[in-house]
What does this fold into?
Amino acid sequence: AQSVAQPEDQVNVAEGNPLTVKCTYSVSGNPYLFWYVQYPNRGLQFLLKYITGDNLVKGSYGFEAEFNKSQTSFHLKKPSALVSDSALYFCAVRDILYNFNKFYFGSGTKLNVKP
Amino acid sequence: EAGVTQSPTHLIKTRGQQATLRCSPISGHTSVYWYQQALGLGLQFLLWYDEGEERNRGNFPPRFSGRQFPNYSSELNVNALELEDSALYLCASSHTTSGYNEQFFGPGTRLTVL
It folds into this structure.
């Protein structure tokens, strides 16, 4: 079965410190992977995606993510966190082999950046 | 470029009633997706429409239905509302059915069932 897991419900980090939000996936074939951010009472905003090529993907607002095929992970990272980064983050995988246009979203990780 | 729009922003219904939610995709996008985001849960895939046809649906009962109009806007209907249908309903659109295109989300409709 295709799925994506975000093992941490919440991540706390001090402003200026690096942050990591974890994501692991299970999918047949090569995965298409995405990260989205959701601010309170808002829809989801696209951050970045991995389709193919370099394992390190750079996205919006200084975020990046590293694709690791052997560990089936796609962790979201930022070198220096801002208070304004506090939000809910979702990892998603697209099932391109069996269910082409179905996105599977993780349960979300709440990021708290404290001043 | 205008983003995905949804209406209404909030909708309050009582159990057993019907709710209709609307979505307008980004201009040029032909695919529309519906998701349910219940409190404390992630996004659950509901429906996918493309070129006016229902292409896929998630694990929801038949009382969740919808359609896509010739201008690619979409409507989600929920019949015989139950208390557990209370959630944020998100609509998303994408440019083509190509797998590498990300989805763009609207702000959502908050449905409350009393």
In short: Chain A has a mean pLDDT of 90. The longest strand of chain A covers residues 87-95. The interface with chain B takes residues 32, 34, 36, 41-46, 49, 51, 90, 94, 96, 99-108 of chain A (CB under 8 Å).
